[in-house]
Amino acid sequence: MQDLKTKYTNRFHKLKSNLTVGLDPEWQKIPEFLKSEEFPLFSFCKQIIDATGEFALAFKPNIAFFERFGSKGILQFEKTIEYIKLSQPEAVIIADAKRGDLANTAKEYAAYFFESLELDSLTISPYMGKDTILPYLENDLGSVFVLCLTSNPSAVEFQKWKDISQTKENQFLHEAVAKLSRELNQEYSGRVGIVVGGTRPSEIARIRSQEKDLLFLIPGFGAQGGGLEEILEAAGELSFINSSRGIHFLSSGKDFAELAHLKAKEISYSMKSYYESKSKN
Q: What are the residue ranges of helices labelled H in 188-227?
């Protein structure tokens, strides 16, 4: 399996787009006409994948929207993963699961996501320290995005805690997380990135100035309010910029996939134009 950095590089150079399509099949919002099908969550995701795949650097399915339906939901999550690999084998797959446990528990999560499902990457929480990250890297098959500075308003309650005993550039908790991620990415080459919220472009720019080689996963674009060009300017090429609701919930009718296609095309072309403009200057 390719490491995350290599797979990112190959796909990005082909598309010149950072667009990451989130797959969040929220039951209350998926079109009613799909709900009578045997696998409605999978059917919804399949149509979004077909509609957006040619523009997608990556797909980010959020397991929570499947887990609520128990074994039938997990089956649809797995069917969604398999369909992405079949229809868009060059696209990166990032499982949005935010796991954050230790030792044998983390090893079992890693075995499921990286061995059973053969996913490229998984979002994880570093709250309990390095011990929560290493089991995924020691698995040797997948990569991780470590939660660093997220886009939710109350993120500052912990992520902005300051340790004045540290050097100035590493005083905030999220800066310590970024530094640890950098060190692990050097040790486990190309297999560690960080999650930074797209509603905080100035913060993204500050973190990027310190972490030039880390891949960023950036939620918070589109429906959550982050501006595209501002995010691109702050994050640079090494980023996965996610849009979920802003692509797949534009309609509750039978045209939802068609509108998703048009929106993904628009975002992707905007990204491509941005890079073309940068290359001319």
A: 201-210
Query: Over the stretch 64-116, which tens digit does the pLDDT of each residue have?
Result: 999 999 999 999 999 999 999 999 999 999 999 999 999 999 999 999 999 99
Q: What HEC string does 8-40 produce?
A: HHHHHHHHCCCEEEEECCCCCCCCHHHCCCCCH
Residue 149's DSSP bridge partners are: 196
Which listed residue (16, 85, 98, 179) is catalytic? 98
Helix, strand, or coil (residue 62): strand
The class (CATH top level) of 4-280 is alpha beta
Give catalytic status of residue 263 as yes or no. Answer: no
H helices of the chain, where? 4-15, 40-52, 64-67, 70-87, 103-110, 134-138, 156-159, 173-187, 201-210, 228-235, 245-248, 256-280
Contact by Cβ (8 Å): 101, 109: yes
Q: Are 210 and 175 in contact (CB under 8 A)?
A: yes
Within 10 angstroms of residue 103's Cβ, the number of other Cβ atoms is 11
In the three-class reduction of DSSP (H, G, I as helix; E, B as strand; rest coil), residue 71 is classed as: helix
pLDDT digit string (tens) for 138-161?
A: 999 999 999 998 877 787 767 766
CA distance 158 to 147: 12
Residues of the chain with pLDDT under 70: 1, 157, 160-161, 163-170, 222-226, 281
How far is the first Cα of the chain from the last one, in angstroms, to the nearest whole number? Answer: 37
Which ranges in 40-101 belong to alpha helices (H)? 40-52, 64-67, 70-87
Identify the H or E element spanning 123: strand 121-124
